Amino acid sequence: MSDLNDPRVFFAAERTLMAWTRTAVALMAFGFAIERFGLFLHMFLLAQGDHARRNGSFWVGASFILFGVVVAVLSVLQYRSVLKTLKPVEIPEGYWVNIGAYTNVLVAVFGSAILGYFILTLD
Description:
The chain is mainly alpha-helical and 123 residues long. The chain contains 3 helices and no strands. It is 76% helix and 0% strand.
């Protein structure tokens, strides 16, 4: 439990949550790029007459996307646990404390949707 009675503690927790949001989005974007590059390479090699499998890049990219989803969810859980330790005086009155958490949950939902799409459209 915090004894500082200072709203800066809350804002530091919120900045940390947003840093984890950026990390989760970056992991998902990296996974998306790996998966799409594998698809591009697969299509390019098919046009050349070669047969190449895109399974390697697919699973690596999907793993990064899944890791981003997990990071987004875990960061919300961590943020909520920090909020429970704060006193009401440390949270500005009328401030919507859950917007960052909702953003992360939405990032996790979108990442899961992309991952589901990739899995459903796998050759």
